[in-house]
Input
Amino acid sequence: MSYRAARLAALALVTVAAAAACVAARTVGHRSSLPEPAGGWRVAIAAAVPGSSGKDGCGVPFGGTLAGVRSADIPCGVKVYVRFGSRTVLTEVVDHAPPSPGVTFDLTPALACLLAVRGRAQVEWSFIG
Output
């Protein structure tokens, strides 16, 4: 197999995996009563990042259905709301490391899918009350 064919096959595999993660993330049940956001909404730039294997910086198994954010400023496990357009998701910090340059949060592929974020986007976020 040529380099070009191998690269196209790898890109196709990543695309299929991301689509599967998106579908799996949407099928996770949600609670009907969630805590209210606390302290108002803050604006941030977030980036959808590709997934990886193994564990992230918080020791959480990092997989295709993990919906979370990477933040250098907020400790592991802290719950936050992230809002983009009409979609709001209650998630948590799953990686305490510097995000991509120029952004406040990196979004796991599953969270990016839930929020319909592609690339970089201005999001709003809040701690839970």
Remarks:
- The mean pLDDT is 78.
- The first strand starts at residue 37 and ends at 48.
- The chain has one domain: 3-128.
- The radius of gyration is 15 Å.
